[in-house]
Amino acid sequence: MRKVGFCIAVLGLLGFGCTGLSFAAQAQEAERPKPASEQTLQRNKAMAAALPFADQRDFEEARRGFIAALENTEIPGKTAPVAFSRKSYDFIDASEAAPDTVNPSLWRQAKLNNQHGLFEVKPGIYQVRGYDIANMTFVETPNGYIVIDTLLIAEAAKTGLELLYKHRPRKPVLAVVLTHPHIDHFGGLRGLIDEADVKAGKVRVIAPAHFMEHAVSENVLLGTAMTRRAEYQFGIGLARGPQGQVDTGLGKSVSAGGTYSLIAPTDLIERTGQTLAIDGVTMEFQMTPETEAPAEMNILFPDLRALCLAENVTGTMHNLYTLRGALVRDGRAWAYYIDEAMQLFQGRADVAFSSHHWPRWGETRIADVMEKTRDLYKFIHDQSVRLANQGLTPAEIAERITLPKVLEQPWHNRGYYGTLKHNAKAVYQRYLGWYDGHPARLDPLPPEQGAKHYVEFMGGGAALLKKAQEFYAKGEYRFVAEVLTHLVFAEPQNMAARNLQADALEQLGYQAESGVWRNLYLLGAQELRGGLAKLPAGSTASPDIVASLGTDLMFDFLAVRIDPEKVEGKDISVNWRFTDTNEQFHMFLKNSVLNHRKGVQAADANATVSMSRATWNRIALRDLSLPVALLTGDVKLSGNPLAFLDLMRQIEPPGERFNIVTP
What we know:
Elements: H1 38-50, H2 57-63, E1 66-68, E2 74-75, E3 84-85, H3 90-93, H4 104-113, E4 117-122, E5 125-129, E6 136-140, E7 145-148, H5 154-165, E8 173-177, H6 195-199, E9 204-208, H7 211-217, H8 223-234, E10 267-269, E11 275-278, E12 281-287, E13 297-301, E14 306-308, H9 331-345, E15 351-353, E16 360-361, H10 363-389, H11 394-400, H12 405-408, H13 420-432, H14 447-457, H15 461-473, H16 477-490, H17 495-511, H18 515-530, H19 543-548, H20 551-559, H21 564-567, E17 572-578, E18 583-590, E19 593-598, E20 607-611, H22 613-620, H23 626-632, E21 636-639, H24 641-649
Parallel strand pairs: 7-8, 8-9, 9-10, 14-15, 17-20
Antiparallel strand pairs: 1-4, 2-3, 4-5, 5-6, 6-7, 11-12, 12-13, 13-14, 15-16, 17-18, 18-19, 20-21
């Protein structure tokens, strides 16, 4: 699930952290959210009439096996009094019918995701759901538990474990299986196990091959941009309520302000068909690389007749492209591995459960969900490619492509997290890139420069705004939002333009079936009206994650923070030696580019710096400043120390939260 992989990006490396900011351009009196317009009411009414709301099987499955819920549904954090508040979603339970300001299909999904507590999947298998964006599953063995995925933060994982212990025997965790390297599935590790027990061989950590490299590398280089965009994807900063955040589609929300942890696996699964037994419980694995994650695996418990489908088959259409930004996933491979799973595990499971949402019971039900999910991703892939070969652009493909009713009607195929439109564009991007083939779009003017020409071309700001108001009255919210971008970027202080664009985005949010699209629209509206919201300080730059980051990638991260204008003409060469890992590097700044070579020391280097990697990690986490480390001798310099310090000065901070809906 790359959705929360962004958390790894918030590294504290030499100033890389996430801090609260004051409003950048707050209006003196921001407009409050508006009610649903008549056009939105009609659109949502049509959605309610088009879908099989009488089908209650999902609710039966989501409630099945309920044992107990937490008494206190607010989970405390490390740097925040409350890291996750299930209580903040009580408004969803209080209303059966969707509010006017929420798409009825999304409201249904929000109510399903509101089911929370400890559930029995079948005797011997239990799930904690509803206290994070993800699930945590416990498989009971004669002498302990196997845990599948850990939730996002240690505090939530520990709370879930204690809930289990209230209703099942208090036995130790013998193994943790990590289905894939997204942080909402491994970040809670230290809430369940102690690393000393792992090193002593008392606890095993099991993961797919290449887990660690993907767990610590995803989004580091573009972490600032992805983290900011993730605020939009998850609605971070939006109030929870009928006019705000109601769900992500995949789960309620991401936790914030907790402890993000990582312990290296003791066992790596390399191939499909590989088996492993823990305390008499056998697991059979299927590798599913390049699906929902670059390294992922499904797990069959043959003796229990239970199948874990990781995040490959859930209760929503997933993302081929996640809107916070990430590498595009392979829809063709995704469909292939679901089909392979159907062949491998047919007739061998009575229940299938996933890392999100709720299980499905019965061979017929499992096969139907897997078949429809397989064909969903295959259809999106195949038809997007077909239309691209007919010359359609990404926007045209997204507008043209329509699911057949047999794939469009199943609730688990609805676009609550991914959507048909942006997934179709993702297929185009994967194969053909950003350029849609029209020469006019090869080198367009940048937004601010082009916006001024557009406004002038349309007769000035007042004329453009008047026309936009007329289109808004007709319910043409997509066009109003698009055209007003030009006026807002040409005249960023024009609050009438900002407020009208906010109104248009807001109505689009009220209409959106996708929780992600709703969050994007509503946070955009909020920032147009009031500027950037102040968010709590915090960082997922935990010692575990920083220590797990390879030195090569660490140095690459420094290289993308070089301002070429400031270093033009500089020629600096530094040797690095890490005493505890026995790593050596030659780093050189030349031609306005910072390069490094592993295992190399230059005879003519300006300076040599020597320290332990553990010391560097403390510097990266800001537990230790470089000047203090030099004074204490934790960092030793030889040669010309000014050359090393000059090099460090060239590495600029990674940037703060930037504007999105305004210049």
